[in-house]
Amino acid sequence: MSAARPITTLRAIAVTATLPLLLTACGYGSEAKKDDAKTSAAPAADAKKLSASEVRIGYFPNLTHATALVGLQEGLIAKELGATAIKPQSFNAGPSEIEALNGGSLDIGFIGPSPSINGYVKSKGSNLRIISGSASGGVKLVVNPDKIKTLDDLKGKKIATPQKGNTQDVAFLNWISEKGWKVDPESGKGDVSVVRTDNKVTPDAFKQGSIDGAWVPEPTASKLVTDGGSVLLDETSLWPDKKFVITNVIVSQKFLKEHPDVVEAVLRGTVKTNEWINANLDKAKASANAKLAAEGGKPLDAKVIDPAWPSIAITDDPLAATLKTQSEWAVKAKLIEQPDLAGIYDLTLLNKVLKAAGKPEVSDAGLGAK
Questions:
Q1: How far apart are CA 197 and CA 137, in angstroms?
Q2: Residue burial 244-265, b: 16+ Cβ < 10 Å; e: rest
Q3: Angle in degrees, CA 128, 81, 312, rounded to 5
Q4: From the centroid of its chain, how far is CA 298?
Q5: How far is the CA of 64 from the CAs of 69, 73, 111, 315, 365, in angstroms?
Q6: DSSP state, residue 336
Q7: Which pLDDT does position 30 carry in this prediction?
Q8: Percent of the chain at pLDDT above 70?
Q9: 246 and 110 in contact (C-beta within 8 Å)?
Q10: Helix runs in 194-242, H state only
């Protein structure tokens, strides 16, 4: 399995303050929008023609989707597609991206593990496949240090997660359970009050004191720190090898069947993007921030992006075993019934691309399509 190299901290980029869309890491509550920003130059007249004239790619405007942000900004994905045009769409909601994929208005998407699992199970395994990894980590428990000084102090406090049943919510409920504390997964009430709060409004709720902390992805976590919060726990520390999937690449099964050459080209682009990110850390951070600025009108402030960036590891490996663990946590919390995830992965094309690039192949943890 290929190693996920963390992005290291770099010199601050002088940028202005932010908020709007940019604080949505597994984001929820907004409609998809077409991305009108320039993603690549027009294809050359002699560009290779693939089986589809265009490919519609979805992603979230946040740092855990750095592969998409940088790959689009730098034209690294477009270069591999030749004459096939990219039609990018940004989303702030896992469910809306899955709906777009299932409804036929999206072909490929960057998305978190929980929406991937839910989308696969609800369609009885008929609508999507996970075809690559993209990012690991980038999730932290940030608290008000005046109210919470140790992990035991969380009992009786109000802690936000982005949405009931989302990736961070499931992880936090599992952590609570392992502490021996009780929380009703539906209402969030119990020994800890789990307050489901959209990432866009979590910073305001924190400043107003209506929550005492939050278990959230980047850059929301680092935004809370700029508002006086303290990082009490990095979720990475709870996982073997300090790795867990936060972003996958998924594809419509119909598009995969009809246009495998296009999917393979996109994967060549993501693999080359991930390699470029890890080899050009300073430029990659600036590129991701430029794309975020194009999305929301403002870049992330250096006080937010500098601590957020190194906590995310960019990787081709989907870390399939960790997705399986996350699904088991959701079952344990009684948020979902035991899912049949057999066939959720198809890493055939990714491993073909990795082999051609001289990189190690990656595993589907026994959950691959037959």
A1: 20
A2: bbbbbbbbbbebbeebbebbbb
A3: 60
A4: 21
A5: 9, 15, 9, 11, 23
A6: S
A7: 37
A8: 88
A9: no
A10: 202-208, 220-226
Nearest residue to 249 (alpha-carbon basis) of 234, 239, 236, 264:
264
- CB neighbours (10 Å) of residue 88? 21
What CA–CA distance (Å, rounded) separates 32 from 295?
Answer: 12
Q: Please give the Cα distance from 76 to 68 (Å, whole number).
A: 10
Residue 111 contacts residue 245 (beta carbons within 8 Å)? no
| The predicted structure's pLDDT at residue 200 | 87
As a whole number, mean pLDDT of residues 222-248 equals 96
**pLDDT over 70 (residue 293):** yes
pLDDT at residue 38 tops 50 = no
Angle between helical axes of 113-122 and 320-332 (0-180°, round to 10): 70
With a cut of 90, say whether residue 179 has pLDDT above it.
Answer: yes
Contacts of residue 191, Cβ cutoff 8 Å, sequence gap at least 6: 155, 156, 176, 181, 182, 183
Locate tokens 């994929």: which residue? 101
Q: State the Cα–Cα distance between residues 237 and 20, nearest whole angstrom.
A: 29
Query: Mean pLDDT score of the chain, rounded to an integer?
Result: 88
If you average pLDDT over residues 267-296, what whole number do you get? 95
Distance, CA of 101 to CA of 97 (rounded, Å): 6
Q: If we measure between CA atoms, which residue out of 162, 117, 178, 127 comes closest to residue 326?
A: 117
Whole-prediction pTM: 0.85
**Mean pLDDT along residues 57-85:** 96
Give the chain's radius of gyration (CA, Å).
Answer: 19
Distances (CA, A) of 136 to 67, 114, 155, 160: 12, 14, 28, 21
Residue 188 CA neighbour count, 13 Å, CB half: 17
Token pair for residue 292?
Answer: 């975020």
- Helix/strand/coil for 218: coil
What distances in angstroms separate CA 278 from CA 96, 135, 267, 284, 370, one per listed residue?
30, 12, 17, 8, 33
